[in-house]
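Hey,
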Amino acid sequence: MTPQTLLLEEMTWPEVERSIAGGFTSVVVAAGAVEQHGPHLPLLVDAVRGDRLALEVARRLGRTLVAPTIRVGCSEHHMDFAGTLSLRRSTLQAICMDYTVSLARHGFRAVHFVPSHGGNFEPLAAMLDDLRDAVAPACEVRAYTDLHGFVELWKEAVAEVVPELVERVGGHADIAESSEMLCIRPELVRDDLAAPGYVADFDNQLAERIFRDGFRTVTPNGVLGDARGMSREIGERCVARAAEGVAAALRDAP
């Protein structure tokens, strides 16, 4: 029997128990952030995007529930911008460990971590073996950890809708992420304040510079890419393409 909701925190304990007994033994956990997203987007972008992405991934995986999003992540490289909150890597690992152990104790047999913030990809990859060791062999733990691959999914999505704007995908508060927010929390998008940031390909060299020296050394307004031209149509395609790509990677993960 399919539960009325896939969101774990909206269910009663008997509903969770029945869902697990009925074969819903897989769960998705998004790892978001509360951090700056340029002059036109609020701090909660990665947290609410995590909510939506986790749900869409769960639907594509099938027979999968959605645990509450970890709302604050590793955002030290954004701390030069007011309001940003950041966890230490050890804190994020402790939270992920406690999520994993709790979910495994209830009978979940697969826990899938899905980062919706760039600063969480590498820490998740580094802690994966420890998470697996804590619950093996009863439960599998997987994580999507390909940051550059995720940005490519956004590029593919934008290219399907408005090919001429693909170069505005930069990876942070850009046309892709801003368009997703138009679909998730449109009342919080200040599209009149959208402005270009650092416009270039998001590659390994750029990522290393950002994580080493801080975001503001690369882009004073906090944007990678350009949000101008954002639309709900682009946003829905970005959400769908990202969910398809992440779900496929999690299915294929060893």
